[in-house]
Predict the structure.
Amino acid sequence: MSTLEIPPPPRRPARARIARALFERSVAGLERLEVIAPDGRPLRRQPGAPRMEIRSDAFFHRLAASGKIGFGEAYVAAEWAADDLAGVLSAFAERLSHLVPRPLQRLRRIYEPLQPRVERNTPAGARANIARHYDLSNDLFAAFLDETMTYSCAVFEPGDSLADAQRRKYDAICDLAGVGEGDHVLEIGTGWGGMAMHAAATRGCRVTSITISREQKQLAEQRVRAAGLERRVEILLCDYRQLYGRFDKIVSIEMFEAVGEEYWPEYFAVCDRLLAPGGRMALQTITMPDDRYRASRRSYTWVHKYIFPGGLIPSERAIARALERGSRLRVSSATEIGHHYPATLRAWRERFLARFDEVRGLGFDETFRRTWEYYLASCEAGFRHGAIGDVQLMLERR
Ligand SMILES: C[S@@+](CC[C@H](N)C(=O)[O-])C[C@H]1O[C@@H](n2cnc3c(N)ncnc32)[C@H](O)[C@@H]1O
């Protein structure tokens, strides 16, 4: 089932030598990292720190050919290994902007790949992008998510299981939107129905929830029926741009990252059109600081190539600008919850690795295992260092 393949890197010895020199210079400045060269020599010695072991010179060829994308590809191709992958990636995340020397950073536009046009989030493009991730297999996601099947940042209190923390997050989102008895709530981005079911069961509301993943719709509907909530929760296979109606409240959890910058004002215009007078919206989204967002908004990264085609993480300022351009909605409160993401991601990664034999039985191979291990660990590293955050916003009409 997994069709991922990492071909060998192009061999250009002179460039690989330059890449190696730049890499050695960068790691010399990193804190809490031990790095071992392919010949077993330490490039940076720091006993007790997370250890990166470069196993093949192919690593430097990949760095030379495709920079940070090559760094991830080399992990997947087993050209380097780590005793604590998230720890190693955290050490790099800390100095992300210094890894590439300044003069080369200015030339980034020339040498960095751009998003392929087919990955733009037109309605057809969005369907294809979402299918590549969410239609992989419901059983794959069930293997590593908790029983609520929630695929977004949880909010932990001491003693919480992952499922408790996901329900706590759902409650916070319901409170933010002011969801109450008798409300008709729109959810944009169903996942597998966890939020819709929780809101209907605990708040006495009706929920219409939309997704553009066929697999998700099928399983979410099954779960709604199994919970006896089919009269309160409907799941539609529908792009947000194609929805009509009037809703008392809107909630959307970590779906905005799939919208794409060119569609942000339209997304908010749609929310404004669908929201009843006096209604409120709760939006949870991953964010990054505005300077990083501006520097990287056109970058095509490893995560785009292998995990989330068409994805783009906004900054809170960029969200505020898009709200102003597309709607009468404005941010009336913001709660940062990104510090809960490392624990969420770690729980997913531990479950994914522990249950990989089952996942292998679904048809996913070793390349897939390393790809998803790298994905979950690199996100954890990003959140640990505040390179990315996660925010719950309350949106109201001015
Ligand atoms: C990261 S998942 C989050 C799911 C869920 N909210 C949760 O917290 O578990 C993103 C969701 O957004 C949905 N989505 C992405 N693009 C969409 C679009 N254009 N229209 C409607 N739903 C979309 C996906 O199908 C998926 O269900």
